[in-house]
Every structure is written in structure tokens, then in C-alpha cells.
């Protein structure tokens, strides 16, 4: 007989050599005294997906103490179901749970045939009780599930003779292991659970000197005597004990021991079997992440039979906890990964002067993002995504409802709310924050009108949506221009990579961020980080901005931001026209305007005048751009006294700008005015004053008749833009070069910055123009810059938990002082787990499909067939597995020819065609493009000549950074990186800290067991699960 384990030997106690065949070790074991601390636990190995024929399975080992690397407890669990109960069974609104625990015939000291004794019954009852409180039973009416735990090897003192009674205490450790392995198997099966349940054991022991103490994870052979023991099953999400089992006899006067036993038992379960020798109790906080693999997969009902779902479930290959020289590393699978693709959403309404624009943003839940991230990605900020159809703008602005605030919700906001409710998954509504930030249009209203509108808006949003809106003051507000500029600074640097990749953006003098300029219809903003000298000199004028990267570390920046209300192009135009009217006599009917093309006649409000006999005041263009520059210069307010030097516009203090390191990007009107009427295209690499001014003068010195003749076919919008272009150009040139002091490229030169970046990175930056003193942009890598993105970036960063649990530094911005100043504006978010009871799986295939359809639709008629093909492919892959098989079989039969009897079998039909083009069927495949490529997550184009600026906010803003996401992966630390993964058993040991092996293998091989696969709905068959290759000793 080659397999002695399968022999039902005599009932007399024996010591099979598979367990212990070294007399020296046996003698050492018999004299073993516990050397580890009382709160130290042994190492654990846990692996799921070990039984292909089961709905879910798990395997657990705990190492013994007398021989390092040798396991002392081996458990295997299989879950079968949920399956429908027989029709004859009475109706049950809840799932029927059946737990079965049994010892293998070779698991104990005494070899014997299988007999169900009281200990197995006790273990089964306690296991069922421990798990029942974790399963969400009402989701499976009239269904049943079987949990079968096989004790392959008992955790007992093998060196002692049989009959010492050690096994009566050892059963507590067995139950603790059963609870843990069964909970993991339930998660692998996709059974809806509140959380995983963990087992822990404590015992009251008597040392050799007679002292009594309570220890965690007791081993009978390590102690002279055990007085009592306690096994606890603990549910962490509810902080609830689901089962408690005492053994032993204690006097009533020893009640304090009962309390301490329970406390230590809970502590043992919370540590996740991870405490090592010499580690303090404080380190338990680091170990509790073991319980963070909360594997209830309530969204798997529809995907339970699909290969992708099974691959994701089997990705929980191994969970191991070990101690390292630099602390405790927990190689665990994060709950967000195992629960599926969990995302967060955010809704923000940009209430500008000309209209309100809705933006929807999406980012990964921080826990999921951290698990998927590489080492470099962990030092990055959360990745924000959006789609073109997630943005919607309606007119007019919120400020037009100042006299009728009660109508703003029904008449203005409802269309935007409906759009948000339609595009944010319903199950995410309660966790999705909603913001309405009003800008320049609302700033011009009286405080009483502002308050009436914001109160009505907040009340309406709370009554008509389920979005997260806990604080009206923080979520619905009129933001200052400085705040708007700061959000824009955050968005632009986020998109340019100044935050995530500072080494690629070294501008010299330790500077790696970009300045931000925004000009809208009513106001203009500036935000930048001064150089070190100016930052120290003007420290009180700066804002402290604090973000948090995915690894939980804070990232702080000192930024200056300022706003000039009334310096937007529309307000500047009004001031300019008023200045003209005041200059000429009151009885004048025609006022010459050097900032309009020659011959153009308009009213004071800019409407074209066709009637030459009109008696109303009329502006008449003279087409003298040089004169226009001179007349718009006084509007800068350069003659206003500067109380705190230096100053820029209107006597307002701004730290000196070092253009060697401060490189500005301009958005909104800076982009539209340079790239609209005057012919600059998106292909222009950089802005230079000489080229731009030449184009402006060529245009503005023309007669309006010649300009108008080319605009007849383009519509009123282009005509309106052409009328206003010359004034806007003169205003922009004056603000940029006379006000802010941007050097005139081609005329003025700055010293070359001492760049430290690589030549390739520098050339690339130069090509984009971002290293010039000023560069107007509309999009960055296809993503349009919007201050709303900066606001949502702060919110998403605030959801990342700090690296140090007691870190009290919040995400947000405020005065430039250490800690949290009184005026600190919080991001409005904290890290909270997703409400998993209602959250469904994000459909990344659906997102990708929508993007493909949008791309196909955008093509001309020649792309129609591609569009149809895309639809067919999407339709095929969105079908269930069984439907795809039937469809494939039907199509394959159309192409398959009949084969004569006895003729060789050939690949024909669709299978032969696919093999010819793609080769034979591989043994496995990898799922890619789950999240889509970067180009698939862009917002649609807008008319760049449309006067929709982001300031006050007529601005165009629609995007967050997007990129393709990698296929989800398991973040497991491997201690043996050189060992190749075995292609044999699914239960190989690559990735273990300690490799040990019993003298004799417990099983044949995996192939012998996979031949007779049974339906998951069937009852489990005894001894048919894959057996475990024992740990190997180095």
C-alpha cells in the first residue's frame, strides 16, 4: 500500500510517520515551553478557489510551534450553493444554512474509520451559529447552502501520548480555524454577507511556577495546564460577536477571568493571526487590515456563471500575513477589489453669469485604487474621469432669478438634476456629493439676494435628489474669485502632471508647478506658487493647500491667488463704452470706437445698427488698433495707489513673479481670444506677442464690409465674435503684458531657467509650449481645463485615508500656517467605506461600449459599417455565457460542412476561421481594457468661439484627467520572487513566507479530481475536493 493514510487501522493509538518520524523532535516537543509572548499568534496561510467543482472554497494552515515551518492545523472548506430547495420543501423567506465539520480518518492520533462523534456535531453547530449572523439571508428565499469543512490535520500536541486530554482543548483552535476558512469560502462563492467572520482563541493557563495568565492562540503542549479556554467568532463591521464557546471550570469568584478571556479572544480574531514575536499591542492597528478583505459579493447574482466573474473571484489566490524586519506587511486582498469595480461619483454645478453648467466626475474608491496602483502610482493623486455626455449647460444664469428665488429650482435646476440622476447610477446616489458653486454673476448681487438664492437651491436639491448634501453652507455657496482661481490652479497642475510627476517638470530653483490665469466675462483670476525667496517674503499672503496621495501621505503647496472683479472681458467692455460716452459731448449721436473694425456700427450694448438715421447713440468703428490699445490701458487701474508693494492691477498686491520658473497657462478668454477669430490653431505650439499682434492688426484694420462678406455663411455667432474680437484682443494684450507683466516673446527675453529635467522631457515640454512664460490652452492632452475639476480633486483626495491613523491634518486650504488654521476650508470629504449593501458593480464594458459607439457615430457615412460591426460585437459580449455559446453554435453550424464517417476530423466553420486568423485556443487568456483607453474618456468639443467662459463663470469646463486603467490585479507581496509559478496544481505554494513539506503528500494530483466535475447545485461529494500539497521545508 503506497498510501497509508487511507488505511483504516486498529483503534489503538499510533503515531503515523507522516506526522512525526524524528525521535529527537518528538522529545523536544514533549518538553516544549511557550517562548512567544502571550499575545503573539502563529503564522497563517489562507487560500481561496482551491476546489473547482464547488461554488466557493478555501484552504487554511497554521504553523506549529515546535518545528518552524511545519503546519499544525490543516483545514479545507467547500461551499455548495445557493441552490433552490425541493418543491416539496416548505417555503422559507431566508436561506437555509447547513454546516458540516468532519475529521479525516488520518487527522487525529487514533486511526479509525469515519464515525460522526459529539465533537464533530459540536463544531458543526457552533460554526453554523457563527456564520448565520454574517450572511444576508433574506436575499436567497427558499434556497439552501452547504458548508463542508474537512479537518485534514488536527492542531494537537503530537509529542504527547494519546489520552492526555490535549485534544479537548485543541478543539477550540479547530473551531477558530473553521470559522475563518468557512467565511473565506463563502466570500469565494459570492454569498451575500455583511462581512467576513474571524475566529480567535484565548486560554487561562498555569505556568510551571504556578502563575495564572491569559494567553492568545494557545497550544496545549506549550503550557503546564489549561484551566479554561474561549473561542470567539467576531464580525468586525458590526463590532459583534456571533458565537462564543467556553470550555473549562472556573469558580464564580473568578468572573474577571471570563471577561479577560473574551477580550483576548476578540483581540486574537482582530489581529488576523498576524502578531509575531516581539510585536506590541499597538501594532494590532496595522494588522486589522486582515479583516479588510470583506468579500460579500452581492452584485454577483447576474455574473455568477460568467468566466470573468470566476476569474475575479479566483484572484484571491492567497492571503498571507507575515512579519518583516521593517514592520508588519499584510499581503491581503483589499475589500474594494474583491467586491468588484467600485467607483465614487461627484456632481458639481458651475453657476456662472451666463448659465449653469453641470459636471459629473468619477474616480475609483481609494481602497480599490490603492490596491490596483503600482509603487509610483501610490505617490499620485486619485484619478478623476468624466465623459462628454456627463456635461450639460443651460441658460440663463442663476443670478437672473434674484427677484424670484422660489422659481430657480423648478425653472432652472430641474433639467440639470434630471441629467445627473440619469447618469449617476441610482445605487450611488446617497454616496455622491452634489455642489453648486456660484461665481462672478452671483458676486454682483446683494448679500440678501445671494442668501435667498443659495438657501432655495440647497432646499430644492435636498428635497428632489438623494445626493449627499449634509451642509448647505459648504455645498451651495458663492465662492470668492480667489477660491475659483485656486481650484483652477489645482486642475491645471493636475492635468499637466506637476503634482504626480514633479521630476518631469523641473523649472529650476526647486519649482515644478505652473501658474494659472483665467479670464471670463466678469472677473479675472491669477494663481501661482512664488519662488522660494518671494514665498518667504510674502508668506502671510499665501494659501496653504494640502492634498493627499493614494498612499495616504499629505502633499502641501504654498500658493498665491488673487481675483479682479470687473476685469472680465464683458465688464471691461462696459467700462470702456462708458468711458467713451463720458469723453464725448452729451449731444453727440455717433461715437468713434477705435476698438471696432472700420465701418461697423453698433448700439452701446453691441447690437448691429442697420438704420443710418437712428437717433440713438451709436458706436462707429474706426479700425485703429494702436489707438484702441492706448484707450483700454487706463482700465487696468495702474494709477491706483499700491499700499502693499508690489502690485499688478488696480493697486492690488501680488508677489513678484519670477518668469524663469513661473510658467503660466491661460484658459477661457485667454484661449478664445487668441485662437478664435485671429486664425491661431490648436497646432500652434506656443504664444508669442509679435505673431499674435500682427494677426490682430491685420484683422482690426480692415473694413467691416470686407470682414462681413466672409462671415455671411457662418451665422450670427461668428459675426458677433468678429465684432468683439478687436476689443478683447486689446484688453488681453494689456492685461497680460502691461498688467501682469508677461514678457513679450520676440521682443523681451527672460534668462534661461536652469532646467534639470532630461532633454527628452524638456523638448516635449517646449513643444507643448508649457515652459514659455505664457501659453493659452483649451485642453491638456485632450482634457479641457476647468476649475470644477480642481474642486472635485480636493474632494477625492480627502477620501483617501491618512497613512498614519491619528493624522489630524485634513485636506483643503487655508491661511499659510502650520496645522489647521481657523479659516481652513475642508475638502468636504472623509474616508468612509462604500455602502456595500446597495452598491452595484460598475459596468466598465458598458462604459467602453458607449465610447466606441460615440466614436463610430462621429464618423462619416464611410464608417457606418464599422459602427454596425461595433454594435454586433458589443451585443455578443454583453450576452450571458450560455447565450453566447448558443449563438456561436448556430453561426458555426452554418459554416460547418458534413464530414464523412471515418474521415479525419478538421477544424471547420467559425472555429476553423478563428483558428486560422488567431491561432489555436490558448489555455488561458487575460482580460484587458476593462476601464478603456485614455482617448475614450474625453468630453466633447465645444465651439471655441462661443463666449462661454469659465470665470464668472461663463467658462467652458468639462473634464478631468483620464487614462486607461490596468486590469485589476492582486497586490500580493512575494517573498520568493525567483520561484516560477507552477502550472500544475492550483494550490502550489509560490508566494509563501515559509515553505515546508510533510514527509508524505496528502493527495494524488489535481488532474485526478477534476475529471468528474459536478454541478455546483449538487450536494458535495465526500473526498472529491482537490487536496492540498503540504507546505515544504526549505
UniProtKB/TrEMBL annotation:
Query: Which first-to-last residue range defines the signal peptide?
Result: none
Domain called Exoribonuclease phosphorolytic: residue spans: 41-191
Instruction: State which residue ranges cross the membrane.
Output: 861-878
Q: Does the keyword Chloroplast apply?
A: no
- Give the superkingdom in one word: Eukaryota
Active-site residues, record numbering mapped to chain:
484 (proton acceptor)
Pfam families (alphabetical): GDA1_CD39 (PF01150), RNase_PH (PF01138)
The answer on whether this UniProt entry bears the keyword Transport reads no
A single cellular component GO annotation: nuclear exosome (RNase complex)
Give this protein's Gene Ontology molecular function annotations. ATP binding; GDP phosphatase activity; ribonucleoside triphosphate phosphatase activity; UDP phosphatase activity
Q: Which PROSITE patterns match?
A: GDA1_CD39_NTPASE
- What InterPro entries does the record point to? ExoRNase_PH_dom1, GDA1_CD39_NTPase, PNPase/RNase_PH_dom_sf, Ribosomal_Su5_D2-typ_SF
Q: Which SUPFAM superfamilies match?
A: Ribosomal protein S5 domain 2-like
Chain positions recorded as ATP binding sites? 521-525
**PANTHER family referenced in this protein's UniProt entry, alphabetically:** ADENOSINE/GUANOSINE DIPHOSPHATASE (PTHR11782), NUCLEOSIDE-DIPHOSPHATASE MIG-23 (PTHR11782:SF121)
The Swiss-Prot or TrEMBL record describes its family as follows:
Belongs to the GDA1/CD39 NTPase family.
Name recorded for this polypeptide: Exoribonuclease phosphorolytic domain-containing protein
Its organism's taxonomic lineage begins at: Eukaryota, Fungi, Dikarya, Ascomycota, Pezizomycotina
Amino acid at each position: 500500500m503506497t498510501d497509508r493514510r487511507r488505511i483504516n487501522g486498529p483503534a489503538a493509538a499510533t503515531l503515523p510517520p507522516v506526522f512525526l518520524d524524528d525521535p529527537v523532535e518528538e522529545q523536544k516537543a514533549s518538553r516544549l515551553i511557550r517562548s512567544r509572548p502571550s499575545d503573539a499568534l502563529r503564522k497563517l496561510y489562507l487560500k481561496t478557489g482551491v476546489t473547482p467543482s464547488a461554488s466557493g472554497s478555501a484552504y487554511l494552515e497554521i504553523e506549529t510551534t515546535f518545528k518552524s515551518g511545519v503546519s499544525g492545523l490543516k483545514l479545507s472548506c467547500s461551499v455548495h450553493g445557493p441552490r433552490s430547495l425541493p418543491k416539496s420543501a416548505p417555503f422559507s423567506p431566508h436561506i437555509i444554512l447547513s454546516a458540516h465539520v468532519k475529521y479525516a480518518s488520518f487527522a487525529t492520533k487514533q486511526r479509525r474509520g469515519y464515525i460522526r462523534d459529539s465533537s464533530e456535531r459540536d463544531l458543526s453547530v457552533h460554526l453554523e451559529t457563527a456564520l448565520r449572523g454574517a450572511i444576508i439571508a433574506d436575499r436567497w428565499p427558499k434556497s439552501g447552502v452547504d458548508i463542508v469543512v474537512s479537518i485534514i490535520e488536527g492542531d494537537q500536541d503530537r509529542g504527547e501520548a494519546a489520552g492526555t486530554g490535549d485534544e479537548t482543548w485543541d478543539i477550540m483552535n479547530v473551531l477558530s480555524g473553521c470559522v475563518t476558512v468557512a467565511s473565506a469560502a463563502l466570500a469565494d462563492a459570492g454569498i451575500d454577507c455583511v462581512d467576513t467572520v474571524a475566529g480567535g482563541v484565548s486560554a487561562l493557563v498555569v505556568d510551571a511556577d504556578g502563575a495564572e495568565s491569559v494567553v492568545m492562540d494557545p497550544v496545549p503542549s506549550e503550557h503546564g495546564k489549561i484551566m479554561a479556554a474561549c473561542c470567539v467568532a467576531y464580525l468586525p463591521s458590526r463590532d459583534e460577536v456571533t458565537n462564543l464557546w467556553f470550555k473549562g471550570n472556573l469558580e464564580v469568584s473568578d468572573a474577571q477571568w471570563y471577561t479577560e478571556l473574551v477580550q483576548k479572544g476578540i483581540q486574537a480574531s482582530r489581529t488576523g493571526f498576524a502578531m509575531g514575536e516581539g510585536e506590541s499591542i499597538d501594532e494590532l492597528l496595522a494588522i486589522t487590515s486582515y479583516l479588510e478583505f470583506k468579500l460579500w459579493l452581492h452584485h454577483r447574482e447576474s455574473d455568477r456563471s460568467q468566466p470573468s466573474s470566476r476569474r475575479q473571484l479566483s484572484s484571491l489566490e492567497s492571503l498571507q500575513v507575515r512579519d518583516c524586519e521593517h514592520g508588519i506587511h499584510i499581503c491581503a486582498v483589499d475589500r474594494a477589489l474583491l467586491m468588484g469595480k467600485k467607483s465614487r461619483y461627484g456632481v458639481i454645478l458651475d453657476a456662472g453669469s451666463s448659465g449653469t453648467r453641470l459636471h459629473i466626475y468619477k474616480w475609483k474608491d481609494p481602497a480599490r485604487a490603492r490596491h490596483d496602483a503600482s509603487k509610483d502610482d501610490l505617490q499620485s493623486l486619485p484619478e478623476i474621469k468624466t465623459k462628454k455626455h456627463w456635461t450639460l449647460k443651460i441658460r440663463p444664469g442663476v443670478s437672473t432669478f434674484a427677484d424670484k428665488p422660489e422659481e430657480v429650482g423648478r425653472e432652472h435646476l430641474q433639467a440639470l438634476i434630471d441629467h445627473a440622476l440619469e447618469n449617476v447610477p441610482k445605487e450611488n446616489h446617497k454616496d455622491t456629493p452634489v455642489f453648486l458653486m456660484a461665481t462672478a454673476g452671483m458676486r454682483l448681487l446683494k448679500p440678501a439676494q445671494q442668501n435667498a438664492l443659495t438657501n432655495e437651491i440647497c432646499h430644492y436639491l435636498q428635497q428632489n435628489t438623494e445626493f449627499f448634501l449634509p451642509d448647505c453652507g459648504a455645498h451651495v455657496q458663492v465662492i470668492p474669485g480667489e477660491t475659483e482661481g485656486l481650484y483652477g490652479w489645482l486642475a491645471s497642475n493636475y492635468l499637466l502632471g506637476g503634482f504626480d510627476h514633479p521630476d518631469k517638470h523641473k523649472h529650476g530653483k526647486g519649482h515644478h508647478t505652473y501658474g494659472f490665469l483665467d479670464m471670463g466675462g466678469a472677473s479675472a483670476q491669477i494663481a501661482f506658487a512664488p519662488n522660494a525667496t518671494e514665498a518667504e517674503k510674502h508668506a502671510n499672503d499665501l494659501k496653504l493647500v494640502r492634498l493627499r496621495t493614494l498612499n495616504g501621505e499629505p502633499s502641501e503647496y504654498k500658493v498665491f491667488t488673487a481675483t479682479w472683479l470687473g476685469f472680465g472681458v464683458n465688464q471691461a467692455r462696459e467700462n470702456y463704452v462708458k468711458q467713451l460716452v463720458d469723453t464725448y459731448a452729451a449731444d453727440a449721436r455717433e461715437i468713434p470706437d477705435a476698438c471696432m473694425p472700420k465701418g461697423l456700427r453698433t448700439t452701446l450694448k453691441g447690437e448691429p445698427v442697420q438704420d443710418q438715421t437712428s437717433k440713438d447713440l451709436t458706436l462707429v468703428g474706426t479700425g485703429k488698433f494702436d489707438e484702441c490699445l492706448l484707450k483700454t490701458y487706463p482700465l487696468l487701474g495702474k494709477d491706483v495707489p499700491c499700499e502693499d508693494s508690489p502690485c499688478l492691477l488696480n493697486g492690488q498686491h501680488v508677489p513678484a513673479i519670477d518668469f524663469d520658473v513661473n510658467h503660466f497657462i491661460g484658459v477661457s478668454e485667454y484661449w478664445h481670444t487668441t485662437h478664435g477669430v485671429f486664425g491661431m490653431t490648436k497646432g500652434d505650439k506656443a504664444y508669442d506677442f509679435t505673431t499674435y499682434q500682427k494677426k490682430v492688426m491685420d484683422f482690426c484694420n480692415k473694413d467691416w464690409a470686407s470682414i462681413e462678406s466672409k462671415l455671411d455663411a457662418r451665422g450670427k455667432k461668428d459675426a458677433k465674435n468678429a465684432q468683439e474680437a478687436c476689443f478683447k484682443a486689446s484688453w488681453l494684450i494689456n492685461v497680460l503684458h502691461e498688467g501682469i507683466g508677461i514678457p513679450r516673446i520676440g521682443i523681451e527675453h527672460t534668462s534661461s531657467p536652469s532646467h534639470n529635467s532630461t532633454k527628452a522631457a524638456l523638448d516635449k515640454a517646449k513643444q507643448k509650449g508649457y515652459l514659455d512664460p505664457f501659453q493659452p490652452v483649451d485642453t491638456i492632452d485632450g482634457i479641457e481645463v476647468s476649475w470644477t475639476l480642481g474642486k472635485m480633486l480636493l474632494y477625492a483626495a480627502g477620501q483617501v485615508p491618512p497613512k498614519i491613523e491619528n493624522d489630524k491634518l485634513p485636506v483643503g486650504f487655508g491661511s499659510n500656517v502650520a496645522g489647521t488654521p481657523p479659516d481652513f476650508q475642508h475638502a468636504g470629504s472623509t474616508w468612509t467605506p462604500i455602502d456595500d449593501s446597495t452598491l452595484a458593480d460598475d459596468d466598465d464594458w458598458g462604459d467602453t461600449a458607449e465610447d466606441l459607439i460615440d466614436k463610430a457615430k462621429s464618423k462619416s457615412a464611410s464608417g457606418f459599417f464599422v459602427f454596425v460591426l461595433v454594435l454586433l460585437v458589443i451585443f455578443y459580449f454583453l450576452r450571458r455565457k450560455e447565450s453566447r455559446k448558443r449563438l456561436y453554435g448556430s453561426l458555426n453550424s452554418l459554416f460547418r460542412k458534413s464530414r464523412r464517417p471515418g474521415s479525419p476530423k478538421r477544424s471547420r466553420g467559425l472555429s476553423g476561421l478563428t483558428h486560422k486568423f488567431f491561432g489555436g485556443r490558448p489555455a488561458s487568456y487575460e482580460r484587458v481594457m476593462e476601464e478603456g483607453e485614455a482617448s475614450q474618456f474625453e468630453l466633447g468639443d465645444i465651439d471655441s468661439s462661443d463666449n462661454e467662459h469659465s470665470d464668472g463663470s461663463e467658462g467652458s469646463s468639462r473634464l478631468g484627467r483620464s487614462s486607461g486603467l490596468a486590469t485589476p490585479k492582486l497586490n500580493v507581496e512575494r517573498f520568493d520572487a525567483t520561484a516560477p509559478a507552477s502550472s500544475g496544481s492550483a494550490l502550489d505554494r509560490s508566494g509563501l513566507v515559509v515553505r515546508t513539506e510533510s514527509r508524505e503528500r496528502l493527495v494524488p494530483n489535481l488532474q485526478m479530481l477534476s475529471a468528474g466535475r459536478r454541478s455546483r447545485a449538487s450536494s458535495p461529494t465526500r473526498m472529491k475536493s482537490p487536496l492540498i500539497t503540504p507546505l515544504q521545508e526549505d
